[in-house]
Amino acid sequence: MSEAFDSLISDLGQRARSAMRALAASDSGQRDRALRAAAAAMRDQAESIIEANRSDMREGGQRGLGEALLDRLRLDGERVEAMAAGLEAIADLPDPVGRVLADWERPNGLRIQRVAVPIGVIGVIYESRPNVTADAAGLCLKSGNAVILRGGSEAVASNRAIHAAFAIGLEAAGLDSNLVQLLPTQDHGAVGSLLRAHGHIDMVVPRGGKRLVARVQADARVPVLAHLDGNNHLYWHPSADPDMAAAVVVNAKMRRPGICGALETLLLDARALDQAGNAIERLLELGCELRGDAQSCALDSRIQAATDADWETEYLDAILALKVVDGPESALAHIARYGSGHTDGILAGDADLAATFLGRLDSAIAVHNASTQFADGGEFGFGAEIGIATGRLHARGPVGVEQLTTFQYRVLGSGQTRA
Amino acid sequence: MSEAFDSLISDLGQRARSAMRALAASDSGQRDRALRAAAAAMRDQAESIIEANRSDMREGGQRGLGEALLDRLRLDGERVEAMAAGLEAIADLPDPVGRVLADWERPNGLRIQRVAVPIGVIGVIYESRPNVTADAAGLCLKSGNAVILRGGSEAVASNRAIHAAFAIGLEAAGLDSNLVQLLPTQDHGAVGSLLRAHGHIDMVVPRGGKRLVARVQADARVPVLAHLDGNNHLYWHPSADPDMAAAVVVNAKMRRPGICGALETLLLDARALDQAGNAIERLLELGCELRGDAQSCALDSRIQAATDADWETEYLDAILALKVVDGPESALAHIARYGSGHTDGILAGDADLAATFLGRLDSAIAVHNASTQFADGGEFGFGAEIGIATGRLHARGPVGVEQLTTFQYRVLGSGQTRA
């Protein structure tokens, strides 16, 4: 079976590669026209997309999917319109391909340019939300890549209907439908083949829960752009303005406690204990559970005792770990030990100290005096993101269309030979 | 045994990580002082380095190493001086860490910067040349990384002596000697553990022959920066100036036929056949063997018939494959099929056509009217390189100190919360 899947992926990959190469010969406007035509097709096909989704929902209900999962799976007119509008927003972004990232001349007259080019063939593996089909296809097409999509088993009919609408857009713009392919089987063996398809797949982006991401990271032999955890920290330095710090902490935890940029542990400087009362009060009022070390627990009887497991936990919930530290070094040591390299930062009025602190964080995103919930492609001004990466190579932080490109050196000569 | 090696690598990796984190707290001048002190130590210790090398040479001779391998292994006063001078040249390079790669402000007043930071802990696996010990240590230190080195078994004593001299430099500048560690065993199991040490090793750079690189790429579970093949092409378009094209082709093949940037296949446009006579004559005069398709063979009786294997072969020798193509599309198709994504290009007077051609090459380095032998960090102005990469992510082409950094987003606020 494994060989059959390998050959399936090799076939899809070759068709994707050749479509992607042909795309390089086309003009960039063609990609945008395809995105707009795909948006129009989403609207035209809204009824059949919603109908397909109803069948997924029915089957999901029969299989006993939980309410949260069913809500993620559900499509209605509003959600289809959001997909279409999302594709138009991607079309409006500047072309990430062909940007001259660097340009210099050598003493021998050679001109060397670093130019943004597509990465190649990208595999996207995701779970129940069917809108990822449109988003991922749109972001990959905009950046000149070909994509092979593998959505969740519970959304098969929805994903097929969305993919069919996208294909109408590609065809309307005269582009090869092999630029966006759906894996034709839900068998896990095909995912395994895709993750090992060195030479056919240039990068894999998993979108979904921690179990999915962990499995992809463990099995992949091709590069993976993802984050496993967002165990994010803020360190409250005594130089911080207490009102500013309180507002940022409350927002970082409670705006949406379930997103990967949410704050999970607050490191409170021992010299700032008497300034944090307001923040603690507001968190508790908003229904946030607080779990602290012994010194934190002494601040308020409603703070529960934390265990070591709390420092490691990404709650993704209205729970915040609290730890008192005796200064920046202790805060950095705690983050180095327990952090996940996603988003960490400092609340401080002392800008020099803050700059030094940020420079010593390993995190993809290092924040000074702002909410960790800004860890988002839209908030960064990237327009849209396919995910957030915490690896150290290629792209870190929000992955938007620019991050879906790599570069090529162009060496422009007039007959130079090497001595 | 595998568990023992895993625990060894985990131990080395943790010491490397903590040394690298401490380095982030130091000023950049300290790294340069260490590099200069290491250069001075190389010179001071030249006698003992050469003595250690003599013992490696003796043992190599007894084990029947070939003359080419023994030459690569050999150190003398001149080669030790070259290592020392190389470290000083690295110290003279601008600091790659802390460069602000991008800097923008959001409508809410958030300032976002993309700042170059070290990659982390780098593993370098190499073969007989002991100078790689000094070069790799120097490049990694300059870029703020910690490195774990694993040299060839035949150079164990030489590598230890060079490493000891480097450690003197680190200590003289007050830096942690764990920034540069030698793997204390030559057992292949330890290499296997290093290649799987996710979380401890952030990237591996193999330096050596194709067998070594292929093995590392196959076994690694951490990112690898390398190139397997340099099967490089030039396409000779009829608009090319024949004298320029001939000079470039001869240089690209014959300057040093054994380097990875050497030309391996010349794709001759059918409309340029009568212009290529000079180039063919000069290649033959210089002792280059030519292997061509039927149309090429008709040009000169000294051209041998090529087989399909020739299109796939990186000769690394004074042999050039010749193929007649009927235009740019055929040339691109040939390169797409047989190229290795290293360095390919076009010889053409028509600049628009050349620009389009470069944009359709998948290669890390795309060349117009210049020798492929410019595929080199020094020639690019990078000062020094740890290798050439042909992967599509992170760094492509020459890997110098800038390419040994990644970046971090710094989000600088004044109390911004997310709506």
Could you walk me through the main structural features you see in this protein, from its secondary elements to its overall organization?
The structure is a homodimer of 419-residue chains. By secondary structure, chain A is of the alpha/beta class. The first copy, chain A, has 16 helices and 16 strands. In chain A, strand 7, helix 10 (242-254) and strand 8 form a beta-alpha-beta unit. In chain A, helix 1 packs across helix 8. Chain A has helices spanning 2-24, 28-44, 46-62, 67-73, 77-92, 131-142, 156-172, 188-195, 210-219, 242-254, 277-285, 294-297, 308-312, 328-338, 351-359, 377-380; strands spanning 100-105, 111-118, 121-126, 146-150, 180-182, 203-207, 232-236, 263-269, 289-292, 304-305, 319-325, 343-347, 365-370, 387-389, 397-399, 405-416. Chain A has two domains: 2-226 and 397-411, 3-Layer(aba) Sandwich (Aldehyde Dehydrogenase, Chain A, domain 1); 232-379, Aldehyde Dehydrogenase, Chain A, domain 2, CATH 3.40.309. At the A-B interface, strand 2, helix 10, helix 15, strand 13 and strand 16 of A face strand 2, helix 10, helix 15, strand 13 and strand 16 of B.
